[in-house]
Specification:
Elements (H helix, E strand, L loop, with lengths): L4 H24 L5 E5 L4 H13 L5 E7 L4 H8 L22 H8 L4 E5 L1 H13 L10 H11 L9 E3 L7
Parallel strand pairs: 1-2, 1-4, 2-3
Length: 172
């Protein structure tokens, strides 16, 4: 409580990603059907979801992806208020957050998102695959892709399935 100004400014910075994507999709008329957003405290996911819901011409399904060991956003959604989640340490380090950002949680609640969680092995596999494509990353950075793999393995929703993922960190 009370820690809102810095998270708000960080989230404002993340909105640039969504706006640049909107411009590109508008120019090409090639909108995604699904957006997979990794989340720790929820700042990136909330900023992206807000911009998508308020500024994009076509509305995708938005899936927020958290580690199985740190599902503070999904847990908070289930009970209708921000709560702490408990679990062992996750190998998805930057996403290993046990308490949501109050601002991010409130925004996500207003944006009609769905939650997915990844096991430790699913996160590592996603990082391995993304890295093999030439984009070296970690299980945190590839968690959105892990969510895509998890959902796709159970079958995409339609033949018009056009997913968007954002890789948030690289490995040097």
């Amino acid at each position: 409580p009370g820690y809102t100004e810095i998270p708000k400014l960080i989230m404002e910075g993340y909105t640039v990603i969504a706006e640049e994507l909107r411009q590109s999709f508008q120019d090409t008329e090639n909108w995604p059907s699904h957006v997979y957003l990794q989340a720790g405290v929820g700042g990136l996911a909330a900023a992206m979801a807000w911009m998508i819901r308020h500024n994009w011409d076509l509305q995708p399904e938005i899936l927020v992806v958290e580690p199985d060991h740190a599902t503070c956003l999904a847990d908070s959604h289930k009970v209708g208020k921000p709560i702490r989640s408990n679990g062992p340490e996750s190998n998805m380090g930057r996403l290993d957050c046990k308490e949501p950002s109050i601002i991010a949680w409130q925004v996500l609640e207003a944006c009609n998102v769905r939650y997915l969680s990844l096991s430790e092995s699913e996160g590592l596999e996603a990082a391995r695959i993304v890295t093999e494509t030439g984009i070296p990353t970690t299980s945190s950075g590839a968690a959105g892709y892990g969510g895509l793999l998890k959902q796709f393995n159970s079958g995409p929703d339609s033949e018009n399935f056009k997913p968007l993922i954002i890789v948030t960190e690289g490995v040097v």
